[in-house]
Each structure stands twice: as structure tokens, then as C-alpha cells.
Amino acid sequence: MSLRVFSISGAATLQGERRFGRRHFGVPYGGPWDRESHLLANALLGNSLSELALELPMYGGVFIAEETIRVALVGGNGPVSVNGTTASSNSTFTLHKGDRLEIDAYSEGSIAYLAASGGWSGDPAANVKRNDILVSNERTVQGNATAQHLSRPPQSLATGKIRATHGPQFDTGLWTEDPMSVLAERNRVGTRLSGKPSIGFQEITSEPACIGAIQVTPKGEWIVIGPDGPTIGGYPKVGVVIEADLARVSQLRENQSLSFQLLTAEEALLESERQQNETNSLASLIRTSAQRP
User: Fold this and answer.
1) Cα-flanking dihedrals φ and ψ of residue 89, to 5°?
2) d(CA 91, CA 73)
3) How far is it, in rounded angstroms, from Cα 81 to Cα 123?
């Protein structure tokens, strides 16, 4: 079962599980930037929750079915159509040979996941570009399968303060909860935010940095490290976005205003466990429902 990429914008990649065990060699974890949307896209199709899905940046793409195939689209919201007829995101589609799936630029959020029944075949983190053929691991598809929908959008699209806990250089006095805005320089490596201009200070000796670490540059800009970000950093790390809110960082848009809210390490751990359990339970329920005949 396959889908041809007719057009695509930005750096689209296949993403599955995070890759642990090599960070001490300088290799980042990678994996889905918005883990919640990735899980839910696979769940809607009854897939294993770790199957590869296509991470689509905010300008979407156009795809042509080479054969009958079932796909699910979850995450950033924008106009979606099949053969010119409006369709819903956060749901599954059955495409027949020659059908044209168009995903326009998102009006809400910044990335979405296009999953295939059985998962996409390929290498994790592989770039996907125009004229590529995406092949699913499923060999037969029921052409009349019932469409599945999410009952609510992913929580990663929620607005409000981004929660963080202390970083190793929190006591430098650089931390602020004043509003900032998202700058154009953002990708899976990091998200750059406006801050206090020209605050000036000396860099520190490079030290390990984790996903979600918030670094402050000498210009006063803040950088939130993403899933493909550096494993060390020489800017002060004043905070760390809690695991529960990392997916929300992935959905930020240029010029969007945001501010941070400080939690204790204990509060951050409890909230991240609560959110992870809730997401995993929801994904398991949806997956079980999707697998019923």
C-alpha cells in the first residue's frame, strides 16, 4: 500500500520512538516532537503506538494514492480535502488508487502526523521529499473500513503558560515569566524566543543539556532545545520545560506570545506522569476500539 508525495514543504521526516543509549556520544534522542499527536495518529489506525508516522511541518503537502490505503492525520489544524471535498483532520481516511489528499497550511499548531495502517516502512528520521513513495507495512486494506475520529483535539494544541522547572543556572537572575514571542528561527533543533535585549554575559563551559532545556543567549534570546538539539550547551540553562509540555512547544507558531510558569521538580514529575498516563490510556482505548471488526 503506498502513497506518492506530489508536493511537500519544509523538513518532513519519518518519526517513531526516541532512540536511547547514544546521547553520551552526542546523538540526540530524536523521535516525534509532538509525542501525543504521534501516538493518537497510530491509535486511530489500530497500529502499534511506536510505528513510524510522517511528521509534517506547518505547510502540509499533497499526496496521491498509488493503491488503496488507510491513513490518519492528527495534530496541527488546517484545511484538508480528498479529491477536492473537505475532510476532517484528527481522523482516518481511506484513499483509493488515484485519490488526492491535500493538507493545506495549518491555521492552528505547527506540525501534524500522517500515519498509515500498519505504519510506514522506512528508516526513523528519514527525510521525505517530493516524488518519494511512502510504503505502508500493511499488505491488504479493507476499502470500506469505518472512519475513526478523535473526540477532542490533542492537548498539545492547548494555549496558556508553558511549565518549566529550575535549570542548573536558575540562580543567575536571568529567569523571567514576562511574555515573550516565538521567533522565526525554530525547528526540531530548537525554538528561539525573544527575551531581554543585549543583556550580555560570559558563556559557561559546555555541559550536558537535555530536551526542553531553556538556554539564554548573550543577546537575551531564549532557546528551548528540541528533540534533535545539541546534547551539550555553553549558555546558561535557566530552566527545563517539563515533559508534559514539550509537545506544546512543538506546536508554537512564529510571533505567538507565550510565558513560562515555574514548577518545583516534584510538581513537574507528578504532572508529567499524570499527563503521560492519561495520553497512554486514551491511545490504548482508541487503538482497541479501532482494532474491533
Assistant:
1) -80, 180
2) 6
3) 28
Cβ atoms 88, 59 nearer than 8 A: no
How far, in Å, CA of 267 to CA of 157, rounded?
A: 22
pTM reported for the whole predicted model: 0.93
Tell me which H or E stretch contains 77.
strand 69-77
Q: Which of 16-25, 33-42, 230-239, 260-269 has the lowest mean pLDDT?
A: 16-25
Q: What is the pLDDT of residues 225-268, one digit of tens each?
A: 999 999 998 999 999 999 999 999 999 999 999 999 999 999 99
Element spanning 127, H or E: strand 127-128
Residues 59, 280, 24, 213: is their CA dihedral positive or negative? positive
**Type of residue numbered 100:** R
Q: Which helix (H) or strand (E) holds 265?
A: helix 265-291
